[in-house]
């Protein structure tokens, strides 16, 4: 049972990290709203690094933000030979990998939630003079990716803490 939980945890943590990797370059972190506008001829959408606008003809115009401040896991599983053949060493590696996946998920969750908080704060502020934005689909993808990464990390940690020291191949 422990090996199945480890494999499931590894799969979920990997999927979570891949989804977080897809979330970062996604252009739709926030999308301009049509709230209060009579006629909308263009849509503005942004992510962390650039902003784009599209008009009613489908022409895109993108520009990078002027200052970006110089932006420039498998080792613990029982079915691998990395880390030697001792199951206790593999259990420690898997627990460490699980903890790092949990940390990555929490960091992603905090960053995405903070970004979403700023969007909603500006949206509901009646005195905000700029363009009002709504939450984009990339934020929902990032939240689900963070949860999947945390779930995978928890499975890796629980499989290693509660697993037996018996070799399933023996």
Automatic annotation (TrEMBL):
User: Is Nucleus set as a keyword in this record?
Assistant: no
| Pfam hit, one | PMP22_Claudin
Does the keyword DNA-binding belong to this entry? no
Q: How does it sit in the membrane?
A: Multi-pass membrane protein
Report keywords, A-Z.
Answer: Cell junction, Cell membrane, Membrane, Tight junction, Transmembrane, Transmembrane helix
Q: Which GO terms describe its cellular component?
A: bicellular tight junction; plasma membrane
Q: What's the family?
A: Belongs to the claudin family.
Which named protein is this?
Claudin
